[in-house]
Amino acid sequence: AQSVTQPDIHITVSEGASLELRCNYSYGATPYLFWYVQSPGQGLQLLLKYFSGDTLVQGIKGFEAEFKRSQSSFNLRKPSVHWSDAAEYFCAVGADTDKLIFGTGTRLQVFP
Amino acid sequence: KAGVTQTPRYLIKTRGQQVTLSCSPISGHRSVSWYQQTPGQGLQFLFEYFSETQRNKGNFPGRFSGRQFSNSRSEMNVSTLELGDSALYLCASSLGQGTGNEQFFGPGTRLTVL
Q1: I need a labelling partner for B11 at 20 to 30 A (CA). Which of A82, B38, B71, B77 fits?
Q2: What's residue B38's pLDDT?
Q3: Is A28 part of the contact surface with chain B (CB cutoff 8 Å)?
Q4: What integer is the mean pLDDT of A12-18?
Q5: Distance between alpha carbon A28 and the CA centroid of its chain, in Å?
Q6: CA B10, CA A105: separation in Å to the nearest integer?
Q7: Per-residue pLDDT averaged across B7-13, rounded?
Q8: Nearest Cβ partner of B97 from A90, A97, A102?
């Protein structure tokens, strides 16, 4: 069955520290992979996406993610977190005309 | 360019009632997808419409239905509301059908069922 796992429900980091949010997926073929961010009371905003090609993907707001086929992972990283990055982050997978499947999300808290 | 708009933003209903939510996609976008977001189940796909036709459907009961108009605006309807239908309902639009097209999300409609 197709699924997405985000093992960390809640992560707390200090401002300026590095960040890595984990995402593992189960899918029949190489899927399209996405990271979205949701601030309180807001809809989802796309941070970055992977369809094919270079496995290191750059996104908005200084985020990047690396697709590792052997580990079925697509972890999100940022070298230095800002207080405004506090939000909930969702990993999602899909393919072609298929629907998007979301992980359960990771809530990021940033301490000054 | 205006983003995806959803109306109303907040809604309170009682069990047994029905509700209609509206979504206006970004101009030029022909695909609209609907998602339900709850603390317990997370984000779950409801359905996708493209060119007025339902192209994909999630695992929700028949009480959940939708439609898309010729101008790509979409509505979703929930009949015989249950307490468990309380959720944030998100609409997303994209140029084309399927996940290969970037989806732009609206702010959502917060539905509370009492």
Answers
A1: B71
A2: 94
A3: no
A4: 97
A5: 20
A6: 23
A7: 97
A8: A97
